[in-house]
Write a structure and sequence with these properties.
With 227 residues, the chain is an alpha/beta fold. Helix content is 28%, strand content 27%. The model has no long low-confidence stretch (mean pLDDT 94). The chain binds cytidine-5'-triphosphate (CTP) and calcium ion.
Length: 227
């Protein structure tokens, strides 16, 4: 293993990873966010760098320190994440692990919203955000050679993940079973189905660190030997 690492199976490979949540502002002091920790995305970026890849990590707001040996771009909104991702192209591989907000606040206000005397609560209007994974998958000549997405599902995991694989136009989907029955929620283990063109691989009872490690090696397998 050490000899292989020294050779750097991903040496010369440019890798883009998105990680963490996005925050969508309501006003200058409030936002809509989600509970993504960024642990899985950051672990993947770290695993890719360890195999010698030239990694750019685009991270939403997380509590994690910037991993070593890579470029880290910090963003807040889905739009900023998309802009940063497009600005990084060309890339050899893109792994979209971020929990991107599906909607942005279309009536965000420039000034802090104030309570009005009538006691009426304000209406927050939402508009669809761009899909970073789908956009990268459709990039034509600027498309990364390998585009990987995630799907966290609580039911009909394979069915939903397969539909996402089709819809997004990505090469692989890492489907994570987060149903209460899977026993993964809040625990140390994940339960993964990796969907590729050649079928489905099951990785039952696996940690986030091991998901990252296995994915990085699998990416190396595919990109190795094809400059
Ligand atoms: N994704 C993205 N940009 C978005 C939404 C999702 O890049 N605006 C990516 C995620 O990073 C992930 C994949 O798409 O790799 C699947 O995200 P998910 O939220 O599971 O899928 P959606 O298409 O948003 O469908 P839904 O939330 O309705 O299940
Ligand atoms: Ca979503």
């Amino acid at each position: 293993i050490e000899t292989l690492l020294a050779a750097g199976p991903l040496k010369g490979v440019k890798a883009l990873v998105t990680s963490g949540p996005t925050y969508e502002p309501i006003d200058p002091v409030r936002f809509i966010g989600n509970r993504s920790s960024g642990k899985q995305g950051h672990a993947i970026a770290t695993a890719l760098a360890r195999l010698g890849a030239d990694v750019t990590l685009i991270s939403g707001p997380v509590k994690l320190a910037d991993p070593a040996n890579m470029r880290v771009i910090h963003v807040e909104t889905a739009r900023e994440m998309l802009g940063a991702a497009l600005g990084c192209l060309p890339m050899d591989v893109a792994v979209c692990a971020a929990a991107v907000a599906d909607w942005t606040v279309s009536n965000a206000s420039k000034e802090k919203r104030k309570k009005d005397a009538s006691g009426q609560a304000p209406l927050i209007e939402l508009a669809a955000n761009p899909d970073i994974l789908a956009t990268l998958s459709e990039k034509g000549s600027a498309r990364p050679r390998l585009v990987v997405g995630f799907a966290a599902e609580t039911e009909k995991v394979l069915e939903h993940a397969r539909a996402k694989h089709q819809r997004k136009g990505c090469d692989w989907i890492v489907a994570n079973d987060v149903s209460p029955q899977s026993g993964t929620f809040g625990g140390d283990f994940n339960s993964i189905h990796l969907i590729t063109a050649s079928g489905v691989e099951d990785w039952p009872r696996i940690t986030k660190a091991d998901v990252a490690e296995r994915l990085a090696w699998k990416i190396a397998d595919v990109l190795k030997g094809s400059p």
